[in-house]
Amino acid sequence: MSKNNDENRKKNKKKIDQKKRKIQNAEAERKARLKQIREDFKAKEADNNPEQ
Questions:
Q1: Which of 1, 29, 35, 52 lies 20 to 30 Å from 46 when distance is taken between CA atoms?
Q2: Angle at the Cα of 30 from the Cα atoms of 27 and 32, rounded to 5 degrees
Q3: pLDDT tens column, 6-33
Q4: CA atoms of 48 and 35, how far apart (whole Å)
Q5: CA-CA-CA-CA torsion for 18, 20, 21, 23, nearest 10 degrees?
Q6: In whole angstroms, how far apart are CA 35 and each of 27, 38, 45, 46, 49?
Q7: Using alpha carbons only, what angle is made at residue 50 by residues 47 and 52, rounded to the nearest 5 degrees?
Q8: What angle do CA 32, 24, 20 make, to 5 degrees?
């Protein structure tokens, strides 16, 4: 019985770890995308206002 519980625990832990990894990757991609948007916006603003 305890062996079965250990196996189930390992399977569940693996699933949870995969979900956490997926969430972390999505969060990192979102942050990178926002950073790129900010940089593009700053560059666009600099092009529109060269006298400043």
A1: 29
A2: 110
A3: 889 999 999 999 999 999 999 999 999 9
A4: 20
A5: 120
A6: 12, 5, 15, 17, 21
A7: 125
A8: 170
Residue 51 is predicted with a pLDDT of 60
> Which pair of structure tokens corresponds to residue 6?
């250990």
H or E stretch at 51: none
- The residue behind tokens 């790129």 is 36
Rounded to the nearest 10 degrees, how much is the dihedral formed by the CA atoms of 16, 18, 21, 25?
-130
Half-sphere exposure of 19 (CA within 13 A, CB side): 6
